[in-house]
Amino acid sequence: MLGPALVLALCATGCAASPGTPTGSGTPAGAVASTGSVTSTSTAASAPAVPLKPGEVRVGGEVDKPYTLTLADLRGMPQTSVTVTYTSAKGQQTHSFDGVPLHTVLTAAAPRFDASRKNGALRGVVAATGGGDYRAVFGWAELDPGFAKSQVLVAVSQDGVPLDDNAGPSLVVPQDTKGGRYVSELDRLWVGTVDRVVDGGR
Question: How far, in Å, CA of 69 to CA of 4, rounded?
Fold first, then answer.
């Protein structure tokens, strides 16, 4: 076994620093200060993901300002209301929701779309993950009010009743006739582009 002095000498020249997650300023404009920590882009690829607390949502992927937010953060932002009708395993449902446009939440993370390409953002995709590893995917144009007629919401209340803070927000997709992409217990939003997959031939 190496003695303490030798270990310290070796680490002084060759040991990698312990991975960590520094904090930064990633709170969206108009939001209250997030209760989660923001992962810096320089360590996002190598540092292990910090476990999420109940109700937290991590926004990341190919972005410059990944961050974590909660229902409390979302409630501090300007709200949009919508009434929707969709079908589910329980039959047809009609509900009213209040929340923040998903586009607003994602643009706060500064997605790295290629501005040199014509409509580079249209190469963007978003994966939303909820409780039990449920996942749904969106094209960026579905979320961008410059292209889409309806707004996908990150909901904080349903039919006037606040969602459970420990369960987290839910996605509401007004343009869908079925509720499959109404992701509940939302905990992760990933933004990226299809370029690597398409150009890589996978």
Answer: 42
Torsion of the alpha carbons at 95, 132, 109 and 176, rounded to the nearest 10? -40
Which string of b and e fits 46-56 if b means at least 16 CB within 10 Å? Answer: eeeeeeeeebb
> CB within 8 A of 111, min separation 6: which ones?
61, 62, 63, 121, 124, 140, 191
- Give me the mean pLDDT over the 92-100 stretch: 97
Question: What rounded mean pLDDT belongs to the chain?
Answer: 82
How many Cβ atoms are within 10 Å of 201's Cβ, its own excluded? 5
Work out the pLDDT band at 132, boundaries 50, 70, 90: confident
Entry pTM: 0.75
For residue 134 the two structure tokens come to 């449920």
| Higher-scoring residue by pLDDT: 71, 16 | 71
What tokens were used for 53? 């607390």
Identify the residue with better confidence: 50 or 144.
144
Residues 6+ apart with CB under 8 A from 7: none
Mean pLDDT value across residues 64-75: 97
Q: For residue 169, which of 61, 36, 72 has the smallest C-alpha distance? A: 72
